[in-house]
Write a structure and sequence with these properties.
- The protein is α/β, with parallel strands linked by helices.
- The protein folds into two domains: 135 residues; 67 residues, no CATH class.
- It is 30% helix and 24% strand.
- It is built from six helices and 13 strands.
- A four-stranded parallel β-sheet has the order 4-10-11-12, with helices on both faces. Strands 5-6-7 form a three-stranded antiparallel β-sheet, with no helix packed on it. The protein has a two-stranded antiparallel sheet with strand order 1-2.
- β6 and β7 form a beta hairpin.
- α1 crosses α6 and α2 runs parallel beside α5.
- The protein starts with a strand and ends with a strand.
């Protein structure tokens, strides 16, 4: 759908739209948290609590294989400062930070014995994603991760491919993609952008800045 634009003080402004669904595509649980906080949304989707760059988002959506995501051959325990911090699927490049049990804050050594529950949860969340009505207006929200490119051209290219996959593979007809704090700063086609300092006391970042960005682009109308 074409974006509605106007001009204010010499700057291009994109008008907010009404959406029936507002869904995080990562790059971490921060975006999902603020979507839920701002709009009161309770439905979860597979991408809400993973940590993953844009390339991993595209890779999984091109081949959403839950069995592969939890296949022990691809799961690696990540250590930070000597502590087991998370488990990463190396095929997709997705960090499964919240999926496995912990002891004293660290992922347990035998995490591979516990793939059953998160696998079934992810399968159910993916089924919910696949069951979304194809003609409902949807806003997908994607932020930039630590491992993402800092250059605009690779981001724009990958974001364009992501829009193509959402339309052609999944059949979504009426959606936009909001890129938050990425090198892409100009709206084009289905792509909207928001840039702001996101510094806060903890993992949630700046709640007020997220509120301003989200309401500037979206009205939740379930």
């Amino acid at each position: 759908m074409a974006l509605t634009r106007w001009w204010r003080s010499g700057a291009e402004v994109v008008a907010p739209r009404r959406y029936r669904h507002i869904i995080s595509l990562g790059t971490s649980c921060r975006s999902a948290h603020h979507i839920r906080r701002q709009f009161g949304i309770t439905e979860a989707y597979p991408f809400d609590w993973w940590i993953f760059p844009l390339t991993a988002t595209l890779s999984f959506l091109e081949d959403p294989d839950v069995e592969c995501l939890y296949d022990e051959r691809w799961l690696v325990l990540n250590r930070e400062n000597g502590e087991a911090a998370a488990v990463t699927n190396e095929r997709y490049g997705i960090r499964l930070f919240h999926e496995f049990p912990r002891e004293n804050g660290a992922v347990i050594a035998n995490f591979a014995d516990h793939v059953g529950p998160p696998k079934e949860r992810t399968r159910a969340l993916l089924d919910r994603f696949l069951a979304l009505p194809k003609d409902d207006p949807i806003l997908f929200v994607k932020g930039r991760g630590y491992h993402d490119s800092t250059r605009a051209r690779p981001w724009a290219s990958c974001a364009g491919k992501l829009c193509e996959v959402l339309q052609t593979r999944y059949g979504f007809l009426d959606f936009d993609l909001l890129l938050v704090n990425t090198p892409v700063t100009r709206a084009r086609g289905r792509i909207r952008t928001a840039s702001f300092p996101d510094v806060g006391p903890d993992w949630r970042g700046d709640a007020d800045a997220w509120t301003r960005a989200l309401v500037a682009h979206a009205v939740y109308d379930p």
